[in-house]
Amino acid sequence: MGGGSTVVATGNIVRCYEKEFKEMGIDLSQEFKEAENEIPIRLSTKEIQASGSRAIYEAALSLGYQMETMPKAIDQQKCIKCGLCINGCKQGAKWTAKNYLNQAVKQGAVVRYDSRVEEVLIDQGQAYGVRGVNAEDEFEYEADKVILAAGGLGTPVILQNSKINNTDVGKKAG
Ligand SMILES: Cc1cc2nc3c(=O)[nH]c(=O)nc-3n(C[C@H](O)[C@H](O)[C@H](O)COP(=O)(O)OP(=O)(O)OC[C@H]3O[C@@H](n4cnc5c(N)ncnc54)[C@H](O)[C@@H]3O)c2cc1C
């Protein structure tokens, strides 16, 4: 769906795999900073912490563990602590990637829903579009730039169907 898994995510915003990517020669520090500036992040406070979370937090502190509050992309004025973040936030309190999608649409982007991409079209090592199916038919879209972002499960399958000459795709976990 529009917004992908961020719609069902719980709004915790922490950096991950920064070190691992750096070891592979990919430095994402600038991109992390940019994202952190764009997404409205606040440390969670009592206002949005469920009683269970609060109890664990206080019990851990009393036992001498170091507990830190989670940076969240949640508008604490709108959150009603229902605990149903993973069903999609009905209060509109949680930031999701739909915010970016809506911005793109306002600037003229067209979103094609119900369209399953099956393959990136590649010619002489250069991606020039995608092929897939929708409710009516097969489709092909051509573009100067193709960004494949179908998530951890979708992306490898599309790459396996595409002519990228890499037999390892989707086979190495972790
Ligand atoms: C319940 C839950 C809670 C989470 N909580 C957090 C959290 O608190 N903090 C955090 O950082 N992360 C959290 N995550 C993880 C986070 O949501 C994901 O890591 C992140 O959204 C992945 O982004 P992505 O763009 O790679 O893929 P996705 O968000 O999965 O987006 C992929 C998009 O591609 C589309 N797609 C897939 N295959 C195709 C295809 N063949 N053709 C066309 N479109 C396709 C999908 O419909 C989707 O819109 C959570 C995830 C879940 C499921």
Task: Using brief descriptors, characterize the structure shown.
174 residues, alpha+beta, three-stranded antiparallel β-sheet, two-stranded antiparallel sheet, 5 strands, 28% helix, binds flavin-adenine dinucleotide, oxidoreductase
Explain what this protein looks like in three dimensions.
The protein is an alpha+beta fold. Helices cover 28% and strands 16% of the residues. It has 2 domains: 1-109, no CATH class; 112-174, no CATH class. It is built from 5 helices and 5 strands; from the N terminus they run ααβαβαβββα. Strand 4 and strand 5 (138-142) form a beta hairpin. The longest helix is centred in the N-terminal third of the chain and has 12 residues, at 51-62. It starts with 17 loop residues before the first helix and ends in a 13-residue tail after the last helix. The mean pLDDT is 93. Flavin-adenine dinucleotide is lined by residues 1, 4-6, 8-12, 86, 116-117, 149-151, 154, 158.
